Amino acid sequence: MIEWLFPNLRLAQFWTATLDTLYMTAVSGAATFVLGLVLGTALFLTSPGQLLANRPVYGALSLLTNIFRSIPFIILIVLLIPFTRFVVGRMLGVNAALPALIIGAAPFYARLVEIGFREVAKGVIEATRAMGGGIGTIIFKVLIPEAGPALASGLTVTLISLVGYTAMAGVIGAGGLGHLAYLEGFQRNNGDVTLAATGMVLVIVFAIQFAGDLVTRILDKR
Amino acid sequence: MIELHNVRKSFQQGRVSVPAVDGVSLSIARGQIFGVIGYSGAGKSTLIRLINGLEHLDSGTITVGELDVSRAGEAELRRARPKIGMIFQHFNLLWSRTVAANIAFALEIAGARKADIPGRVAELIKLVGLEGREHAYPSQLSGGQKQRVGIARALANRPDVLLCDEATSALDPETTDAILDLLSGINRQFGLTIVLITHEMHVVRRICDQVAVMDAGRIVEAGAVSEVFARPQSEVTQRFLRQLLAGEGVGESLDLNAVDPGQGALVKLTYMGPQARQAALADAIRHFDLPINILHGRVSRTREASVGDLYVQIPASDEKLEEVLAFLRERDIASDIIGREKRA
Ligand SMILES: Nc1ncnc2c1ncn2[C@@H]1O[C@H](COP(=O)(O)OP(=O)(O)OP(=O)(O)O)[C@@H](O)[C@H]1O
Ligand SMILES: [Mg+2]
């Protein structure tokens, strides 16, 4: 059946490409989550009227996130080639894509974190301070749990963009489904391979969306 | 317990500096329920937030027990705050935590031992009457129940002081009274000092011992509730008093034509003063053996005395009537004779 529908598809290769895409998405997703959370928290706390309000710091962080958020991903990859060589050592393979993926997605997620924290009622932070809570309590016991649904739905959106980014990274040789679709499918004129790769990307995106919605719903006690 | 001396705080709004608290001095004794009443923007919230150091004053001194709030650093304030509970108009609960976990939050912050938390939480849930709801989330509770969680959370670390910022302003009248009764009970049971901020006269009347009237950042009048009610000096206080009486339907139509002048003199009694008690009228009835008839009006009880107006008909005239009115006057009940008895 599969051979009849996709005569040019080599299953082992397809499977490896799928795993590569999942690997790149998962690792860059995890790093984006942590970095985005740190950066988003810093953005929120230093913004005007908040606990650590500081105009220059907020301005600098804000500018930085906006710059990295605005650079088209394909250009970001090229710009980061020297940096990636330095960190990863070589410019091929799945790990080569990671720095660009993380630097492209973390500022985006940071903004979503900042917006999520803004939704947390000011009064709850006030109540926490009135009970004697410090900045650590406010971050870990108030902001993050109270913004849980926003953090989860933001992460879902970010992971889906990351799947798209990995496909682009594939074009410059990072492996994965994008690489397969481009090299084996497009360049060798095997339409069936491109189609199979596209189908698998869709399955991955739908699965992320489904899981993300589920987690968001579970966290939402409002 | 709480002393404020010449406290000032202003906010920068654009280019101008707006004084929110403008030279306030107050002395609140241990175990008192102290009300601060004022209209919106009077600076009440700012005042109460200065007491636990959430807001830093510009000048003056504030002490709470042994702690000099006006000089204390942030770390010292944080350590002191578990002993100064606070409740809010909009409850400010964590919606991601259950009732029990919201109460536990206060204990976690104060560094309670993990093993001690469940027992203390159960005690508090019982104290505020929320048995059976400990696993509910705030979104599943009514306003009154949410405020009960707020109160339990504020009491978790056995504070000496409870600050209430418009704690009943988001509640309906019945729930307001239930919450006020709870606060009053806690005050008696634990000897807790309560500072209560409100714009409702009803709240002050129902549970406060002392009241300060605040207007434009200043205290315009302060004293025992019955004193302040009896002799309102400032225009703001008089406005609040009218609000109270109007809210209870006094001064609404009393149909004078329907009063039979043959049944006695029509008299308006005004209850105002520390001695005024509702029971005084019953005493007069017994003392003079006169069937005094209440026609209209309402007297409301404060913690120590009563306020309000009553229209009564007293079947007596001349000297006897004067005797009755003198008897009432001794008990801080003023009278106005509206119509004399006419015999057919
Ligand atoms: N953080 C702030 N920044 C600037 N101005 C403020 C701030 N907080 C309060 N004010 C100003 O201080 C004044 C007093 O405010 P406050 O909130 O203490 O009044 P309030 O008596 O509690 O009023 P309400 O009954 O509406 O709560 C107001 O003019 C308000 O605009
Ligand atoms: Mg206020």
TrEMBL record, chain A:
Protein origin, superkingdom: Bacteria
PROSITE patterns, per database record: ABC_TM1
UniProt protein name: ABC transporter permease
InterPro entries linked: AA_ABC_Transporter_Permease (IPR051322), MetI-like (IPR000515), MetI-like_sf (IPR035906)
Record field: transmembrane: 21-45, 57-80, 92-110, 159-181, 193-212
Keyword Ribosomal protein recorded: no
Membrane topology of this protein: Multi-pass membrane protein
Family classification: Belongs to the binding-protein-dependent transport system permease family. CysTW subfamily.
Keywords of this entry: Cell membrane, Membrane, Transmembrane, Transmembrane helix, Transport
Coiled coil: none
Any one Gene Ontology BP term: D-methionine transmembrane transport
Species whose genome carries this gene: Pelagibacterium lacus
Principal location listed in the UniProt entry: membrane
Cell location: Cell membrane
Ranges where the ABC transmembrane type-1 domain occurs: 18-212
Pfam family, one: BPD_transp_1
Keyword Magnesium in annotation: no
One Gene Ontology cellular component annotation held by this UniProt entry: plasma membrane
TrEMBL record, chain B:
ABC transporter domain boundaries: 2-241
SMART domains, A to Z: AAA, NIL
SUPFAM superfamilies: ACT-like, P-loop containing nucleoside triphosphate hydrolases
InterPro entries per UniProt: AAA+_ATPase (IPR003593), ABC_transporter-like_ATP-bd (IPR003439), ABC_transporter-like_CS (IPR017871), ACT-like_dom_sf (IPR045865), MetN_ABC (IPR041701), MetN_ABC_transporter-like (IPR050086), NIL_domain (IPR018449), P-loop_NTPase (IPR027417)
GO MF annotation terms: ATP binding; ATP hydrolysis activity
Gene3D superfamilies: 3.30.70.260, P-loop containing nucleotide triphosphate hydrolases
Pfam families from the UniProt entry: ABC_tran, NIL
Any Gene Ontology CC annotation: plasma membrane
Biological processes, Gene Ontology terms: amino acid transport
Keyword annotations: Amino-acid transport, ATP-binding, Cell membrane, Membrane, Nucleotide-binding, Translocase, Transport
Function field: Part of the ABC transporter FtsEX involved in cellular division. Important for assembly or stability of the septal ring.
Family membership noted in the UniProt record: Belongs to the ABC transporter superfamily.
Protein name in UniProt: Cell division ATP-binding protein FtsE
Species this protein is from: Pelagibacterium lacus
Lineage: Bacteria, Pseudomonadati, Pseudomonadota, Alphaproteobacteria, Hyphomicrobiales
